[in-house]
TrEMBL record:
Originating gene: pcrB
HAMAP family cross-referenced by the UniProt entry: GGGP_HepGP_synthase (MF_00112)
Positions contributing to sn-glycerol 1-phosphate binding: K12, Y159, L160, E161, Y162, S163, G164, G189, G209, D210
EC number of the protein: 2.5.1.n9
Pathway: Membrane lipid metabolism; glycerophospholipid metabolism
Keywords, comma-separated and alphabetical: Lipid biosynthesis, Lipid metabolism, Magnesium, Metal-binding, Phospholipid biosynthesis, Phospholipid metabolism, Transferase
Keyword field contains Nucleotide-binding: no
Subunit structure: Homodimer.
First-level EC class: transferase
Enzymatic reactions: sn-glycerol 1-phosphate + all-trans-heptaprenyl diphosphate = 3-heptaprenyl-sn-glycero-1-phosphate + diphosphate
Species of origin: Staphylococcus warneri
UniProt GO molecular function: heptaprenylglyceryl phosphate synthase activity; magnesium ion binding
High-level lineage: Bacteria, Bacillati, Bacillota, Bacilli, Bacillales
Name of the protein described by the UniProt record: Heptaprenylglyceryl phosphate synthase
Amino acid sequence: MYDIKQWRHVFKLDPAKPISDDDLDAIGMSNTDAIIIGGTDNVTEDNVIHLMSRVRRYPLPLVLEISNLESVMPGFDFYFVPTVLNSNNVKYHNEMLLEALKEFGHVINFEEVVFEGYLVLNENSKVAQKTKANTQLDIDDVDSYALMANELYRFPIMYLEYSGEYGDVEKVKSVANTLTTTQLFYGGGITSLSQAKEMAEFADTIVVGDIVYQDIKKALKTVKIKESSK
Ligand code: 1GP
């Protein structure tokens, strides 16, 4: 029904952060390609269901990016399942996945599940601290991770996660050049159309998060990348 490969721009909304009806309406009626609900801390069944019910009325694909098992629920179009390639903790490689499959494996519709190979690259981000990610990676490292994602794991998506910080364009470019079939998502620190354009030149899909809560007008402007095709 929805073709993720066509997505150029997505908003990521954090269920733990309050958002007004007006701002949510502006996001829902924008020309973005999809909304992802996801966050690192304080993601609960209550706040996910609350946010889902508020955004469900908009004609956009809705994704739950899973951060813990307690907040997984039916009703989304897709479930993005991250595995953090540069985490030092097996929990974030596949231990949580094992728990999920033990509990829900028989009821999961795997057509809706999309596996994401994450590289967490901002050492100061909550996600880096939580997952104990080794963020000290040079271009050779990220390139080799890209090969791993594309050729070995054959992930549908590789996600370069700079959450809260604008990333290193050279690394994004280099990963983009290495990936041939895996779709590249970039997220982190995009606060303007020019940054959105710069990253969208290399990433297949850009993710815009925190600026939604800081300055909704700036956030909405990033959608204009869709007016120029890649
Ligand atoms: C976070 O990659 C997303 O998971 C977006 O990052 O919040 O910094 O925009 P920002």
